[in-house]
Amino acid sequence: MAYGLQSSYSNPLGQITHVHGYANRTSVDEGHLHIMRGDTGHTIRVPGDDHVHRVFGVTSLAVGHRHFYAVVSGLEIPTSPGFHVHRYQGVVMVAGSPPHIHRFEGITAPAPDDIP
To answer: I want to staple 90 with a disulfide (CB 3.0 to 4.6 A). Which of 8, 35, 71, 101 is the partner?
Structure first.
């Protein structure tokens, strides 16, 4: 799926679920940055009729290396009626020469509310 508005669908257990697109730049460290782009994992239900998503992947290539990242988003943030987004932030795994990290933060693309 491409970054942007995502739709709901049923997972293998028959539960309504969805994913969100995301795209952001990392911090500039060691004179460069990386792009992060993809789709979150499916909904992870949490107490209180809310949910979060895993945000994970590999950054763009810069200065001969990439970084892995994996975080869990914050709770849903309502936007327009029937839709919501999630904030996410974290630090990529150490890579490069010299070894270094980058920080990142962002807000997912909107997705439909589907938690009953």
So the answer is: 71
Query: 32: Cβ–Cβ under 8 A, 6 or more apart, which residues?
Result: 62, 63
How far apart CA 52 and CA 62 sit, in angstroms, is 30
Q: Which amino acid is at 113?
A: D
pLDDT tens for each residue of the chain, 116 residues long? 344 545 555 555 556 689 999 999 999 999 999 999 999 999 999 998 899 999 999 999 999 999 999 999 999 999 999 999 999 999 999 999 999 999 999 999 999 987 55
- DSSP notation for 42-110: --EEETTTEEE-EEEEEPPPBTTB--EEEEE----EE-STTEEE-EEEEEPPPBTTTTB--EEEEEPPP
The length of the chain in residues reads 116
In terms of Cβ atoms closer than 10 Å to its own Cβ (0-12, 13-18, 19+), residue 12 is exposed
Q: State the DSSP code for 4.
A: S
Q: What is the pTM of this model?
A: 0.85
